[in-house]
Write a structure and sequence with these properties.
The protein is an alpha/beta fold and 692 residues long. It contains 27 helices and 25 strands. The protein is globular, with a radius of gyration of 26 Å. Strand 12, helix 15 (334-341) and strand 13 form a beta-alpha-beta unit. Helices cover 42% and strands 18% of the residues.
């Protein structure tokens, strides 16, 4: 293999069989930069975080050195777990990883909820060398009473976590780290942890989160693409209908991937494009896996077409060689923008590109703000959510099932005391949580042993065991069936139609008329319709961060948008209008309205403004709409004077009522739920911009 000195010596560290197949089977003239840099630390067994733009060769950078270790050190049986956040990504990766493993006589299998019981039984009888799975499916293996956990998982030496950032900033990350500790308790060596990610803020902290407490050497391997190599354009359309017209006319003959940040907008845009006779496909999580897979495959095989998607296509799924990425409004973070931008520019000589199409003033401002932050090289850090009390309780009951019905309390505390976030939760709240579980008949404490109480037996035995595997709640939905074929799932909100007119839904970029409903089975039967349909889904509120909000304020305070790069004429005109329209919002104190209420334009981000709303409530006021940019509220002059004015208000301890209950909240004392949700909002609000 031709390479310079450092690359050649790194390549020579690979097992001869791997070297042979890289050159002769893959036909590679050289390793890519990330792959070269990853070889040495990975074959030496280091923990590592590999960071590169999408399509930077991260998968092979991790897998080839691990296969080399597998051969050199004669690993046998299931020795590598490859963990992904979504099943679709596992399915997408399996052929690629199987091909790499087969080159050296090893085998890969997938294990998740859609895999048949027969295939799982075969994998247990004849364990593969590499198992592709999710945390939830790994939990299912570990608590399944019919499986020999130690035989199947006791030889795991390495875990590769794809899209690591998607885990680290979420409770699924704590779930994953807890599972890895439980694997070690089973006797698995698990000496190497490898994370893969696109560009993130503070990558050293992300690597520390994954591997810092596990012992051993950790190495960060990072490749970045400078902003100058990307083509970013921002346009203003004013509506979804106008955005569809733009997409239908721009870049004709090319393959375009369009991102929307809600399923509702995906369906609205897809219907509008379909009406304009655009060859359009749809992908989002509410569609059935088969329909989504068919759409993604058809899109990958065609030209002059559009696929409209939510973030499901952000996480590395291969939909072929894209020409363009288009973003309706703006994603919620620079990190998400980078994931999407990286879907383009894969062909030699091509450039990464993105076209923002704003349909609102807010969307335009946030698109411009993201472009500026990107140009500055800023990417948000990924702080893990503090105090996962509910995950601590979930893992307690999972461990009881794993160990056949009871667990020594000392073993439980020692095990999860090795996971940083859970160790903090144990130190801060375990005695109170234990007393609550025992008093509520969830837990039985007999001497030094812990066992299921009557309520836990009723909740988790039998079919309830599957629910224990999942750390998050899925929203309630109705299955939409066309004959015996599942089209997708709709929120009950979408079924609130008028009794005297047909109910027309939008799913997969097509319209469907509801012909019957079965509320007891949460199912509706549908047939295709020529009428225009609509569907709605409830989702978690995700407001802009402090960095994004403060950048919006900076943009509004600019004298002129003429120097803003990449803006179309329409976008420049609208931006200038917004600067005039929102000029009064730039004051640093609340704006008093005619009715005596206030609006405080903080531009501090949603988390900080939620805390401000809590302080208003603590002072005795009431608040209304809370956004990332502002808070509407009422507060009497007497109260304001008593607390010391606006400075006194922001110094108050917020009164906090959790907006949404986490999963397993009923197993926790109310004080722990309140403490956890407050500290999580405070953690996000404390992320400063610009970073120190």
């Amino acid at each position: 293999m031709s390479s310079d000195g450092a690359g050649a010596s790194a390549f020579e560290l690979l097992h001869p069989a791997v070297q042979y197949h890289v050159v002769n089977s893959l036909g590679w003239p050289a390793l890519r930069p990330l792959q070269e840099q990853a070889v040495t630390p990975l074959v030496q067994g280091h923990h590592a975080l590999l960071i590169a733009p999408t399509a930077g060769g991260k998968t092979e950078a991790a897998v080839l050195p691990v296969l080399s270790r597998m051969l050199s050190e004669e690993w046998r049986g299931l020795s590598v777990l490859y963990v992904c956040p979504i099943k679709a990504l596992l399915n997408n990766l399996e052929p690629r990883l199987s091909a790499l493993a087969r080159m050296v006589g090893r085998r890969v299998e997938v294990w998740h909820g859609d895999v048949s019981a027969g295939d799982k039984s075969r994998a247990q009888r004849e364990p593969p060398d590499i198992l592709l799975t999710t945390p939830e499916s790994l939990e299912g293996i570990m608590i399944g009473s019919r499986r020999d956990h130690r035989r199947l998982l006791g030889g795991v030496r390495c875990v590769i976590v794809d899209e690591l950032h998607a885990f680290a900033g979420d409770d699924r990350g704590w779930h994953l780290l807890a599972l890895l500790e439980r694997l070690r308790a089973l006797g698995a060596p698990l000496e190497q942890r490898i994370g893969l990610s696109a560009t993130v803020g503070d990558p050293a902290a992300l690597l520390e989160w994954l591997a810092g407490h596990a012992g051993g050497t950790s190495t960060l391997v990072q490749i970045s693409a400078p902003p100058a190599e990307s083509e970013i354009t921002i346009d203003y359309a004013g509506s979804i209908a106008n955005a569809a017209i733009l997409i239908s006319r721009l870049h004709a003959g090319e393959k375009r991937l369009v991102f929307c940040d809600s399923r509702t907008k995906v369906e609205q845009l897809a219907l509008a494009l379909h009406a304009l006779e655009v060859d359009v496909f749809v992908s989002h999580a509410a569609l059935s896996a088969d329909i989504r897979r068919q759409a993604e495959q058809a899109f990958a095989e065609r030209q002059n077409c559009v696929i409209v998607a939510t973030s499901t296509l952000e996480l590395g799924l291969d939909v072929g060689d894209l020409d363009r990425v288009i973003q309706i409004e703006a994603p919620g973070s620079v990190a998400s923008f980078l994931q999407r931008l990286g879907r383009t520019g894969r062909r030699p000589g091509s450039r990464r590109n993105m076209l923002f199409i704003a349909t609102s003033g807010e969307g335009l401002l946030q698109a411009v703000a993201i472009n500026r932050l990107f140009g500055e090289g800023y990417v948000e850090p990924v702080p893990p959510p503090p105090l996962p009390y509910h995950l601590l309780v979930q893992q307690l009951f999972a461990l009881i099932f794993e160990r056949g019905g009871e667990v020594a309390e000392a073993d439980f505390l020692a095990l999860f005391g090795r996971v940083p976030g859970m160790a903090e939760a144990v130190d801060a709240g375990w005695p109170e949580i234990r007393a609550h579980l025992v008093a509520g008949d969830w837990l039985v404490g007999t001497g030094m042993q812990l066992a299921l109480g009557p309520k836990a037996e009723a909740r988790f035995r039998g079919k309830g065991l599957a629910d224990l595997c999942v750390s998050f709640d899925s929203p309630k939905s109705f299955a939409a069936m066309h004959g015996n074929v599942l089209v997708g799932h709709v929120d009950p909100l979408s079924l609130a139609g008028k009794r005297d007119s047909p109910l027309i839904l939008a799913l997969g970029g097509r319209s469907w008329r509801v012909v019957s409903s079965d509320w007891s089975r949460a199912r509706v039967h549908v047939v295709p319709s020529e009428e225009k349909g609509s569907s709605r889904w409830l989702g978690a509120t995700r407001g802009a961060s402090r960095a994004l909000s403060q950048k919006v304020r900076e943009i509004l305070s600019d004298a002129s948008p003429d120097d803003e790069r990449g803006l179309s004429g329409r976008a420049r005109t609208k931006l200038a209008e917004l600067q005039v329209e929102l000029e009064d919002t730039l004051r640093t104190v609340p704006f008093e309205r005619a009715d005596g209420s206030y609006v405080w334009w903080t531009y501090a981000g949603l988390a900080a403004n939620l805390l401000l709303a809590g302080r208003i409530a603590a002072a005795g006021g009431t608040y209304g709409v809370v956004t990332a940019w502002s808070v509407k509220f009422t507060l009497s002059p007497a109260v304001l004077e008593r607390i010391g004015g606006w400075k006194g208000l922001v110094a108050l301890e917020p009164f906090w009522e959790p907006a949404a209950q986490p999963k397993f909240a009923e197993l926790l004392p109310a004080s722990r739920v309140q403490d956890m949700t407050l500290q999580r909002v405070q953690a996000v609000a404390s992320i400063r911009y610009p970073p120190k």
